[in-house]
Design brief:
By secondary structure, this protein is mainly beta. Helices cover about 5% and strands about 45% of the residues. The model has no long low-confidence stretch (mean pLDDT about 95).
Length: about 290
């Protein structure tokens, strides 16, 4: 076992009691789960496929830290088409989600229930909270009837200005879907989502961050959710990982990672990266030495 293998998750470890998992499996197929009990220092994230209707979910609750929920259509050729409909309650108000969306929920914002109203083809769902475990709490704080909670549902790409050369180059091997950072909401952490579909030496320079990062590669095949049917090379410190399975890679603050090389794709792969900070900032060896 390498020094970094403890930060690589490729097998589902379901943290819930059997009766809860049995109910979950009637409408969803969990892919991967990570939290601070499984990986040292990690924040929590769940990825799953929604494949059937859900009439009742857990009730109104809050978290002590910020959360992002994702509802993504799984057609890379039409990535904003959810091919379904989700009813989500935020701040005591009903919202209908029928396009690919990220929902930003700052600490203390009341949300749920969630009802899955229609699933024409499986919907990729994720939830990520900036704490060690997924913990819900009740709140007696009243909702604000005058606040526009709908603005927390992001359905269009608003990425930073990477420059036309980078953007056009990115389009030759990937499709960026949605981006979240503190430009959209001052308290937000940063998250990037894309479909990878072509080979590329994408991030050839090793780098670090001043905060923790979680990087994911998720199969687009609902029937084989752990098989990427692709080959992706990623380096963590001096350890090389050649990934053919759905994978989470957790890079604690200061851990060197990359190169990232996309070798082979028989079908698209859903990719995300999340950093605890509000902006994505990397530090190369040259920058560190300056």
């Amino acid at each position: 076992m390498s020094n970094t293998s403890q930060y690589v998750v490729q097998t589902l470890k379901d943290p819930f009691p059997p009766e809860m998992s049995k109910r979950y499996n009637t409408f969803a197929k969990r892919i991967l789960w990570i939290d601070g009990d499984m990986v040292p220092g990690a924040f929590q994230m769940n990825c799953a496929w929604y494949f059937d209707k859900l009439e009742t979910s857990m009730g109104d609750h809050i978290h002590d830290t910020d959360e992002i929920l994702g509802f993504f259509g799984n057609d890379p050729e039409d990535p904003y088409n959810l091919h379904g409909e989700v009813e989500m309650w935020i701040g005591g108000k009903k919202h209908i989600i029928n396009r690919t969306a990220m929902v930003f929920l700052p600490a203390g914002m009341r949300h749920c229930p969630i009802h899955i109203r229609r699933v024409d083809r499986p919907i990729l769902h994720f939830s990520v909270v900036m704490e060690k475990n997924w913990v819900t709490k009740e709140s007696s704080t009243p909702n604000d009837p005058d606040y526009d909670y709908s603005k927390h549902i992001v359905t269009r790409l608003d990425a930073p200005n990477f420059g036309p050369e980078f953007v056009e180059g990115y389009k030759t091997f990937a499709t960026r879907i949605l981006w979240m950072d503190n430009r959209l909401f001052p308290e937000a952490f940063q998250m990037n989502t894309s479909w990878y579909w072509g080979p590329k030496n994408h991030a050839p320079v090793p780098h670090t961050h001043n905060c923790d990062e979680l990087i994911g590669f998720i199969s687009s095949d609902f029937n084989n959710p752990n098989d990427l049917d692709a080959e992706i090379e990623m380096w963590m410190e001096d350890d090389k990982y050649l990934m053919t399975k759905s994978t989470y890679l957790f890079a604690p603050a200061g851990m060197k990672h990359c190169p990232l090389i996309l070798h082979r794709f028989n079908r698209p792969v859903f990719h995300f990266s999340i950093v605890r900070e509000g902006q994505y900032k990397l530090i190369t060896a040259e920058q560190k030495n300056d």
